[in-house]
Amino acid sequence: MCRRLIFLGLMFLGCATKQRQYQNFSKAFQYSNKMLEEEKKFYALANENTINDNVVKNNIDNNQNSNICKFNIEKKKLSSTNWMDGLDGSKKLNQFNIPGSHDSLAYNVSNFVKKYAQCQKYTLQDQLNSGVRILDIRLFYDKTKKDLFCCHGKDIFQCNCHKKNSDELISYDLVLSTIANFLKNHPSETIIIAPKHESGSKTLTNKQINLVHEKLKKFGIIYTENRVPSLQEVRGKIVLWDKKNSLNGGMKILTTSKSFSNKKYIGIKWEIQKKFKTTPQEKVNILQKFFNNAENNKQPQDGNHGYINYSSGFDSILLLPNSASVAKDVNIVIKNHKFKNRCLYGWIIGDFVDEDFAKAIYISNFVTPF
User: Fold this and answer.
1) Rounded CA gap, 366 and 78, in Å?
2) Distances (CA, A) of 234 to 12, 237, 253, 345
3) Burial class (CB in 10 A: 0-12, 13-18, 19+), 334
4) Strands 222-223, 159-161: parallel, antiparallel or unpaired by DSSP?
5) CB neighbours (10 Å) of residue 33?
6) Which residues contact 109 (CB under 8 A, 6 or more apart)?
7) Strand stretches in the chain, DSSP E
8) E strands, 3-96, in order
9) Alpha carbon of 324 to those of 118, 152, 352: distances in Å?
10) Which residue has the higher pLDDT, 152 or 7?
11) Nearest by Cα to 164 from 109, 243, 229, 226
């Protein structure tokens, strides 16, 4: 009996010892696994950081003189609605190639010269979505409604601008609210607007000028200083361009009646081409000469110079202006032109613009196409 008890006691002690060994082994195994996982995370993080650092370094090295950082293109999805998001915000607006529309609201006009007054095919919203960032807005003051509306032409040739498939006039309020909503949805962008009085007297009265500014201030996103801002200053904002020196505020970059001008405004030397009465071939020749000068370093590419080119123009048919005939040939040339990346062409403003027209221009700001 005694021997049996001693034997059972020894077995119990052996089992207890093995259980403790097993527990210790289990703890050691878990600890080892934990350390292994921590080690894996450490090396994975180290490798990830090394790769990212190399990517950033390579992209910075390759794009030091670029208007954009190539790395941003790889990280951001750029399109016609937010292409400015890839631009260097520290640069001024005169240092970018920006597409614009001439007589931006003249897509549904009324009058006996309707066919000859139309300058655009697409609505304002469609133009903004296509990449257009400069708008030419012609206004008249309705004495009955005591408000501003869009038009094209003067006096008996005045063609009022209507909403698409509608007889309702396009008010200045509608124009500004459309732009404001676009910028709300695309805060990386900026829209340059050039409002001017189109019909009747050559200049707006002080009361009408104040009305323009009241409407702009209501939206709270307007830049009215008389200088060219950096892009970063005006992202998500409307920039006022006073091209006729008729408004109390805005960038005073004047487009005179001359077809060609070379003059300094607000500290920048501007070369402006706006030959409107022309033929399709003459306008094509003018633009191609300008493109060649830009591409062959015959015109300065620094921040002290600016370029504004109107690709719009009109040919006369039975003494009536026809902008469509000029735009047809000119727009084909612009869409097919091989714009050089990072070459400064400036602001190009045209008739019957579309997404292909706009993209041909704004894509030249970038090193890598998207």
Assistant:
1) 11
2) 83, 5, 18, 21
3) buried
4) unpaired
5) 10
6) 117, 118, 151, 152, 159, 160, 161, 162
7) 98-101, 109-110, 134-142, 147-152, 159-161, 191-197, 222-223, 238-240, 260-265, 268-273, 305-310, 315-317, 320-322, 347-350
8) none
9) 8, 15, 8
10) 152
11) 109
Is pLDDT above 70 for 111? no
User: CA 246 to CA 22: how far, in whole Å?
Assistant: 92
283: Cβ contacts below 8 Å, ≥ 6 apart: 275, 311, 313, 326, 329, 330
For residue 261, give both structure tokens. 């001008």
For the purposes of burial, counting CB atoms within 10 Å of the CB of 197, is it exposed (0-12), middle (13-18) or buried (19 or more)? Answer: buried
Q: What is the pLDDT of residues 313-349, one digit of tens each?
A: 988 766 677 889 899 999 999 999 999 988 999 999 9
**Fold designation for 86-365:** TIM Barrel (3.20.20)
Q: What CA–CA distance (Å, rounded) separates 223 from 93? A: 13
The per-residue pLDDT for 206 is: 73
300's CB contacts (< 8 A; 6+ apart) are: 269
* 75 CB neighbour count, 10 Å cutoff: 9
Structural domain spans, the chain: 86-365
Q: How many Cβ atoms sit within 10 Å of the Cβ of residue 4?
A: 8
pLDDT above 90 (res 222): yes
Kindly report the pTM of this predicted structure.
0.79
